[in-house]
Amino acid sequence: MGRSCIVECLLLCFLSVSECTIEVNGIEGQNVTLPCRYDVKNKGPQHTCWGKGTLPINGCSDQIISTDGTKVTDKVSSRYQLIGDLITGDVSLTIFNTSEKDSGIYGCKVQHIGFFNDEKFEVTLTVNKAPVPPTSRTPDNMTTTSQTRGYPTHDTFSTHYIKSESQIGFNNQFKILLSILLVPIAVSAHVLRKRWKRDALVPEM
After folding, report:
1. Hey, what's the torsion of the CAs at 72, 73, 75, 78, to 10 degrees?
2. pLDDT, tens digit, for every residue of 118-143?
3. Measured between alpha carbons, how far is residue 85 from residues 5, 16, 59, 66, 149 in Å?
4. pLDDT band at 77 (very low <50, low <70, confident <90, very high)
5. Tens digits of per-residue pLDDT, 6-18?
6. Residue of 63, 85, 83 lying closest to 74 (CA atoms)
7. Helix or strand holding residue 194 (H, E)
8. For the chain, what is the radius of gyration of the CA atoms?
9. Side-chain half-sphere of 4: how many Cα atoms within 13 Å?
10. pTM value?
11. Which of 88, 96, 110, 192 could link 38 by a cystine bridge, Cβ 3.0 to 4.6 Å?
């Protein structure tokens, strides 16, 4: 067999490999499904693996989950699940509670018997931050309904009550002080009035 024939055989082998590239977007904190499916009716249940990163020639790089075609045989975390119907060839990968760290390339490889005839699916996942909900803010120039209608608020009642108590206390103190000052004056006036009356009754010599 000549050299040119060997090259042609290798090219045919590589061209027989089925490859597909898909892009998927997700939101942080939510679940996301990376699709992967094969024809199980014609080929029967097949070993399939999922890995993170570009798929190598053999197996899956950085493998995260695998199946024998009927059940899951290995997985590195409960966040990775094959929730599709494996019997029908649905080997889509679901990642629960995603984060931005989950972004990247994922590879699904359906391992058929024979050389260079595996099916490869590469999925580029982009996980975006969850949108921040808008917060409602009351403008500074707006007042509450009770204030707009002229009804005093609880704080207003408290302020008025405190002021009234302070005013009453001040009035009481003023009355006490005034009483203290007026009592000696009244006593002195009473004594002077008696003395004047007595002097008026004494006849002149």
Report:
1. 50
2. 899 999 999 999 888 887 665 555 54
3. 43, 27, 22, 14, 65
4. very high
5. 334 334 333 334 5
6. 63
7. helix 154-201
8. 48
9. 0
10. 0.57
11. 110
